[in-house]
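Work Package 3 (structural annotation) set out to generate three-dimensional models for the target panel prioritized at the project kickoff. During this period the team completed the workflow that converts sequence records into discrete structure tokens, so that structures can be stored uniformly alongside our sequence database. As a representative example, we reproduce one entry of 337 residues exactly as it appears in the project archive.
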Amino acid sequence: MKNKQLVLASRPEKFITPSNFKMQIVDLPVLQKGEFLIKVLYLSVAPVMKFYMLDGAGIEAPLQIGDLMRGRGVGEVIESKHPEFNVGDIVQGKCGWQQYVICDGAPYHMMYKVKQRVLPYSTALGVLGMTGFTSYFGLYKVGALQKGDNVLVSAAAGGVGSSVGSLAKIKGARAVGLASTDEKCKLLVEKLGYFGAINYKSQNVSEQIDAFFPDGIDVYFDNVGGSLLDIALTKLKRYARVVCCGRISQYLDGKDAAVYPLKNWYKIGATRSKMEGFFIYDFEQDFPIAEKEMSEWIKAGKLSYQEDILVGLENMPIALNRLFEKKNVGKQLVKIS
């Protein structure tokens, strides 16, 4: 069998380009005892992947030129010589940008069986995968959401943000989302469980937050950092929680980008609030709880989600770049087979 792969050809400067990668076709080796073969169905993209190409993001060793591009995927086991993985199992984990994966089940691959089979299987990378778990644990654990809370979410139409509105609503809280277009704002309110939406490109963000939440916000779910974070800090109620999930507003400039100088950081102390970052794998032992609960909410029509899917391995660079161009609506994925 042949396997198509995308390997690193050059390091990106600002935006990701197809020329940063090279397509190669390699022979699949014969499966050895303790291994299983996965046919990749979907691959996911995330902003951190740009830093895998630059410096490893402080999580992984930096990719070298010629290395297979890293990334999570969901696929079907089509051959197995492993006692715990059977043909027909749907799994998600570190697949890399390729059509087939040979895995031995080692912890590094973080290969999980998809137990709550909600079709399409792309959900295992989005709302029922690391993206959805980030929304779930970020809001419920780090944000300590309470019934009646006022929640503000940046990049609300992105992969993580697109689930936060419904998750807040399920627990009796009200969420307002920040997005870059009127089209995205409409989607947030009409489909994704948001009480309201603000177009931060065309509207006065400070005035709109006051209109929705005149008493201030209890939780700010921050996916972008920068100036929007600075504004949100001025709207905190006493004992508010700021969930530091991402800072995509600064990712374009690469690893040497200057850190945005927050002017309103003192509001954390003035309001006796909490500002906390988190790493999703700190909650790994509770992933099955989140998966089960969220799948039940999807089936009950309580939890909506949005996916943005391209087709073909060759479109992986375009899909990744869409995150930085703010073109994706919901979780950005690529269908491989």
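The mean pLDDT is 93.
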